[in-house]
Automatic annotation (TrEMBL), chain A:
<feature type="transmembrane region" description="Helical">
    <location>
        <begin position="112"/>
        <end position="131"/>
    </location>
</feature>
<feature type="transmembrane region" description="Helical">
    <location>
        <begin position="152"/>
        <end position="171"/>
    </location>
</feature>
<feature type="transmembrane region" description="Helical">
    <location>
        <begin position="88"/>
        <end position="106"/>
    </location>
</feature>
<dbReference type="InterPro" id="IPR036890">
    <property type="entry name" value="HATPase_C_sf"/>
</dbReference>
<dbReference type="GO" id="GO:0016301">
    <property type="term" value="F:kinase activity"/>
</dbReference>
<keyword id="KW-1133">Transmembrane helix</keyword>
<keyword id="KW-0808">Transferase</keyword>
<feature type="domain" description="Phage shock protein PspC N-terminal">
    <location>
        <begin position="17"/>
        <end position="74"/>
    </location>
</feature>
<dbReference type="InterPro" id="IPR003594">
    <property type="entry name" value="HATPase_dom"/>
</dbReference>
From TrEMBL, chain B:
<keyword id="KW-0597">Phosphoprotein</keyword>
<keyword id="KW-0804">Transcription</keyword>
<dbReference type="InterPro" id="IPR011006">
    <property type="entry name" value="CheY-like_superfamily"/>
</dbReference>
<feature type="domain" description="HTH luxR-type">
    <location>
        <begin position="143"/>
        <end position="208"/>
    </location>
</feature>
<dbReference type="InterPro" id="IPR000792">
    <property type="entry name" value="Tscrpt_reg_LuxR_C"/>
</dbReference>
<dbReference type="GO" id="GO:0006355">
    <property type="term" value="P:regulation of DNA-templated transcription"/>
</dbReference>
<dbReference type="Pfam" id="PF00072">
    <property type="entry name" value="Response_reg"/>
</dbReference>
<feature type="modified residue" description="4-aspartylphosphate">
    <location>
        <position position="52"/>
    </location>
</feature>
<keyword id="KW-0805">Transcription regulation</keyword>
Length: 402, 210
């Protein structure tokens, strides 16, 4: 029963997703848990890493804060679950102990030398976290893309400028003097990047959110328009003609058909294929005569340019009109089938039927519009009827494939 | 007398069906979602469950899964407003013995319930069309030829159902008994439920439009 599963829940493979902060089981902001889920690691490992990095130079705390700001919170319904304060206390205790240990032994005097690593690390983290899965894959795969071309060019430019500047300074013999200044410029630029990045990222995210919201609203507007233009309209009409049951049924039926088509049928060009054309003709005749026409189509083919199917469709319309007008049957069944190069249409009613031989020659409906028309175009039409037994018109047409 | 449970989340519809069903049918209860349906089926043990396809809590397919999964022999007739191939084929493969749309007349519904109660299958013209379409022209090799294709006779029967013929008319048309028609339809139902045909699911998925 593997099939059944596919029917029930198709397309199961989850897309690679961006890091989110889960609400459940978080200690502080859910950042460590989010990273753990992303990297498929135990959250405890990540938490310990944050504690360790926070103690050694404060990088952990900064990174945590930044990630807290930029990672979206996982959707969670209901009241936020309480944090596990005992665990949080335990991690804090570990942090304090490490800090005390570092301070006592003097091991944490990383000084300014740690800063570039901190800046670089945070920058990389931000970029990685912010990037779309697609882009991330692009980075990893190393394929040459147009964006990449741009980036390479930028990188090349920056490298050249830096080399040029260094070369210039070296030639002037001032490189040694400029070194501290350069370092601090670098640090400042890095710092600004770190400060601005979350803000820019937030802005970008907001834009995306807005876009999604707009799309949703457009969809809602489309549904609203559909409901307003057709459903509300029909309901109003029904109230106004409530004294005429036949008209009420006709309106309800037409509305039902519209809604069904909108919900379940692909947007089809009624002039392009046989099934679509049969459906449209049935809908039109149903509307015109207030008799329900049930259409079932199996297989489909394009309307031929030679006009054979067009003739067949005209004949089928005539059969539907006859059934709706004269049979007295409350419903008409239409079945269109395409098998190989042969198209067949059946129009059946359960009405009063008639004696075919007694149909006068001048009754154009059956002889001319159905049988004659089909035969002129190389098809066949059979009418099967008996008084009291209903009528079935069978149309067959062979369409040679070119 | 056939004992029937009506499962539908629209109260109005439930009372409508109740009023329409003939005297040969006894409505023993109603349920409005998956949970109450599963409970009511276990308690009341009806002969036939009229099952709505779209319901809160997983819909008709979930009821089928839970009830039939527990080894119950209750028979289901799916009743829905939906024409979507996925819904139709979905509940049939979930174990329902028939599928009719909600605009069916009271007399036809009574007839369908009786048929399902007797262990036969009930195909609406549209379901017959879906099945013909799904089993049509396969070039892909089938895993189980017996299950994966329809016989000529089954195809004929389905085609007549799609054309709007009643079982009695089909029997007359093919010079066979009504019982034989029922046997053919049941056999198609079995194939539909058991076939692992690749195309069947692909077809239904391709028809998913909403």
């Amino acid at each position: 029963m593997a099939d059944q599963k596919t029917l029930a829940e198709p397309g199961g493979d989850a897309p690679y997703r961006r890091m989110t902060r889960p609400m459940e089981g978080r200690l502080l902001g859910g950042v460590a848990q989010g990273i753990a889920a992303q990297l498929k690691l135990d959250p405890v490992v990540i938490r310990l890493m944050f504690v360790l990095l926070s103690v050694a130079g404060g990088l952990g705390a900064v990174a945590y804060a930044v990630l807290w700001m930029i990672a979206p919170r996982e959707p969670y319904e209901g009241a936020p679950p309480p944090r596990d304060w005992s665990q949080l206390a335990a991690f804090s205790a570990i942090g304090v102990a490490l800090l005390a240990f570092g301070w006592l032994t003097g091991a944490s005097k990383g000084g300014i030398g740690m800063l570039p690593f901190a800046v670089g690390g945070i920058g990389a983290l931000i970029l990685w976290q912010q990037a779309d899965p697609e882009r991330r894959k692009g980075w990893v795969s190393g394929a040459t893309k147009s964006i990449r071309g741009n980036r390479v060019r930028t990188l090349l430019g920056v490298t050249l400028v830096v080399i040029g500047a260094i070369g210039f300074l070296a030639a002037e013999g001032e490189l040694a003097d400029a070194q501290p200044g350069l370092l601090f410029t670098g640090v400042v630029v890095g710092g600004l990047t770190v400060i601005a990045a979350p803000w820019l990222a937030g802005l970008w995210k907001e834009l995306q959110l807005e876009r999604r919201e707009r799309i949703r609203q457009e969809e809602r507007a489309e549904v609203a328009a559909m409901v307003h233009d057709s459903v509300l309209h029909t309901l109003t009409l029904i109230q106004r003609v409530a004294h005429d049951p036949r008209e009420v049924v006709r309106l309800a039926r037409a509305q039902e058909r519209d809604l069904r088509n909108w919900l379940y049928q692909p947007a089809q060009d009624a002039d392009a294929t046989l099934a679509a054309a049969v459906r449209r003709i049935a809908a039109e005749e149903e509307d015109a005569h207030g008799v329900a026409i049930e259409v079932v189509c199996v297989g489909d083919m394009d309307i031929d340019p030679g006009g054979r199917l067009a003739a067949m469709l005209k004949a089928s319309r005539q059969a539907m009109v006859n059934a709706a007008k004269y049979s007295g049957s409350p419903t008409i069944s239409v079945y269109a089938e395409v098998e190989g190069d042969e198209a067949t249409i059946f129009v059946k009613d359960r009405g009063k039927g008639f004696d075919l031989d007694a149909v006068p020659l001048d009754r154009m409906g059956i002889r001319e519009s159905i049988i004659g028309r089909m035969e002129r175009h190389g098809g066949t039409a059979r009418v099967r009827t008996e008084p009291g037994e209903g009528t079935e018109v069978m149309l067959t047409m062979k369409i040679a494939k070119d | 007398m056939t004992r029937v449970l009506i499962v539908d989340d629209h109260r109005l519809f439930r009372s409508g069906v109740r009023a329409e069903l003939g005297d040969s049918i006894q409505v023993v209860g109603e349920a409005e979602d998956v949970e109450t349906a599963v409970k009511a089926i276990a308690e009341l043990q009806p002969d036939v469950v009229l099952l709505d396809v779209h319901m809160p809590g997983g819909g008709g397919q979930e009821v089928l899964r839970r009830v039939l999964g527990s080894g119950s022999q209750v028979r289901f007739l799916a009743l829905s407003v939906s024409d979507a191939a996925e819904d139709v084929i979905g509940v049939i493969r979930g174990g329902a013995r028939g599928y009719v749309t909600k605009n069916i007349s009271g007399r036809e519904l009574t007839d369908a319930i009786r048929r399902v109660a007797e262990g036969d299958a009930v195909f609406s013209p549209r379901l017959a069309g879906f099945v013909l379409d799904a089993f049509a022209s396969s070039e892909a090799p089938s895993i189980d030829p017996e299950l994966d294709s329809l016989t000529q006779r089954e195809r004929e029967v389905l085609r007549l159902i799609a054309r709007g013929y009643a079982y009695k008319e089909i029997a007359k048309e093919l010079f066979i008994s009504v019982k034989t028609v029922e046997t053919h339809v049941s056999s198609v139902l079995r194939k539909l439920q058991l076939s692992n045909r690749h195309e069947l699911s692909r077809w239904a998925t391709a028809r998913r439009l909403v």
